[in-house]
Each structure stands twice: as structure tokens, then as C-alpha cells.
Amino acid sequence: MANNHDEDTEWNDILRAKGIIPKKEEITEADIVDMIDDAIAKRDEKNYEQKTVDELDELLDEDNEENERMLMEYRQQRLNAIKQEMSEDKFGEIQHIYKTDFIREVSDASKVVWVVAYLYKE
């Protein structure tokens, strides 16, 4: 009976500890992900190898149309966001305040928006 070195048995653990057989290779999650990605790539590669030139051109056109559609949607969303920002009032108004209102109107408000104060004496 042949001994399978990859089995997890007490006997194999003892042999590994003594250095008689090589340590078992640990498979990490990253290794599993890489194996899955490789399998998917090979599957896709086989699908492309079986297609004719015309079919490949058609696939490229479909990919380009999909990418173009996604870019147009993103562009439209971005334009809408810019229009929304432009439509909001960015600037308030000029108002006369007194010493008692200074903290509320200047110090506290400057935490949210820029405040320009013009100080003068009457």
C-alpha cells in the first residue's frame, strides 16, 4: 500500500515533523481565487478560439456599444450633478449685523460656508 503524502493523518504529521516527507503545501484563499480566475480565463479563451473572425468582430462591437452606453450614462449623471450644483445658491446676501450677532453670523456660519466680513464704523 502506497502512502499518500498529501493526506492529513497522524502518521504523515509525524513524518513531516521528522523531515522524512515534505511539508504539506498550504492553499490560501488567494490561491483559490487565482485558480478560479485561471479556469474562467481558459474557458473564455476556448470560447473565443471556436469563433470565426466575423463573430469576434461582432463581439467587439457589442463590447464597444456596451462601454459607450455606460460612459454616456455616467456622463449624463455627471452633467446632472454639475447642473444641480450650479443651480444651488452659493452666495448669500449682504446684511448688516451688530456686535451681538457676530458669533452666530460669522464664526458659526464660517464652519459651513465662506464668510466675508466688511467691518466699518458709523
TrEMBL record:
<comment type="similarity">
    <text>Belongs to the phosducin family.</text>
</comment>
<keyword id="KW-0175">Coiled coil</keyword>
<dbReference type="GO" id="GO:0006457">
    <property type="term" value="P:protein folding"/>
</dbReference>
<protein>
    <submittedName>
        <fullName>Phosducin-like protein 3</fullName>
    </submittedName>
</protein>
<dbReference type="InterPro" id="IPR051498">
    <property type="entry name" value="Phosducin-like_chap/apop_reg"/>
</dbReference>
<dbReference type="InterPro" id="IPR036249">
    <property type="entry name" value="Thioredoxin-like_sf"/>
</dbReference>
<dbReference type="GO" id="GO:0005737">
    <property type="term" value="C:cytoplasm"/>
</dbReference>
<feature type="coiled-coil region">
    <location>
        <begin position="53"/>
        <end position="80"/>
    </location>
</feature>
